[in-house]
Design brief:
The protein is mainly beta. It contains two helices and 13 strands, in the order αβββββαββββββββ.
């Protein structure tokens, strides 16, 4: 049974999936391509995606991301939420489950995000997102447009100068641009 086609009414394409398990409470998963689309709309696309997760603290409601790597991630957020019929519930209870990632090795070459909010399109592109040894490096560019008219541009370049700790974030020499001014 093709669950994605019959239940979700979407196409799901997964190329070259690999699952790696071990005696340790650890699992690795990689995929050459993961694509979820409805008709011609790409909702989620992952290219050359790989992750390693650790479950040794699962009884304490914690999962650790050991590594996460991707060449390209594309999310069309509003279409995805609409197709999956996900609604925001402000009264929902928060989860006690924690995902630890500060000591992770994360490298994502490109992230493309698109979100339609009150008829305005928010587009964000993140290049070279890297987290290693609690240091975050990110190049982010975005814009807000409505009916193909650009209203607002923004950017951020960290130059590997963001230090992340359990209870704080310290940023030095952070380039921020608004409407192409610094």
């Amino acid at each position: 049974m093709n669950v994605s086609k019959n239940v979700l009414k979407m196409d799901l394409i997964i190329q070259n999936p690999k699952l790696k398990t071990s005696i340790k409470p650890q699992i690795g998963f990689s995929v050459e391509k993961f694509l979820l689309k409805k008709e011609d709309k790409k909702l989620v696309e992952l290219n050359e995606f790989a992750t390693s997760l650790e479950f040794n603290r699962i009884l304490k409601n914690e999962i650790k991301i050991n590594s996460l790597k991707a060449k390209d991630i594309t999310l069309n957020i509003d279409d995805l939420l609409n197709e999956l019929k996900i609604e925001q519930n402000n009264n929902s209870a928060s989860s006690d489950f924690k995902v630890r990632f500060l000591n992770s090795d994360i490298l994502i070459e490109k992230i493309h995000l698109k979100y339609l909010l009150n008829k305005s399109l928010l587009g964000v592109q993140i290049n070279n997102l890297q987290l290693k040894d609690k240091k975050l490096s990110i190049e982010l560019n975005g814009n807000v447009s409505k009916q193909n008219i650009n209203y607002f541009n923004f950017g951020l370049n960290s130059k590997n100068e963001i230090q992340m700790y359990n209870d704080k974030i310290i940023a030095n020499d952070l380039d921020i641009s608004l409407n192409n001014s610094k």
